[in-house]
Amino acid sequence: MSERFIFTRHRTRCYHCGEDADQIIQAVSAQAQVICSACGATRIFIPRFENTGAVGTCTPIGRYDLWTLDAGGRCKNCGVTGPHDLAIGSNHLTTRCRNCGYTHFYRFNLEYMAKRPVDDGVSAPPAP
Ligand SMILES: [Zn+2]
Ligand SMILES: [Zn+2]
């Protein structure tokens, strides 16, 4: 990803490992990711639509709290580098330019483990 739009972090309890750890948030036009810095659990969001008008507030559904953050980014609509509002829930991720209101709406696509931080039983004998 050579394009850099949003790159920030949010310290919270990881839904996966339960650690109080930085969750690294990256977003570009084509994709958004949230990665736990402790366990590597990664959530991928893909674009659903972009919108220059106002969007209604999203109803958080699911097992994660809704995070509302702000982050600096360069808006591709108005070209201004400035604060963007981020809202990250279990099923969606949105970024919104505070200057012009341009909104990227991503939906949850998949989840995977980016790395294995500890050897959690690879050498254990297989179950009978
Ligand atoms: Zn974690
Ligand atoms: Zn803008």
TrEMBL record:
This is Uncharacterized protein.
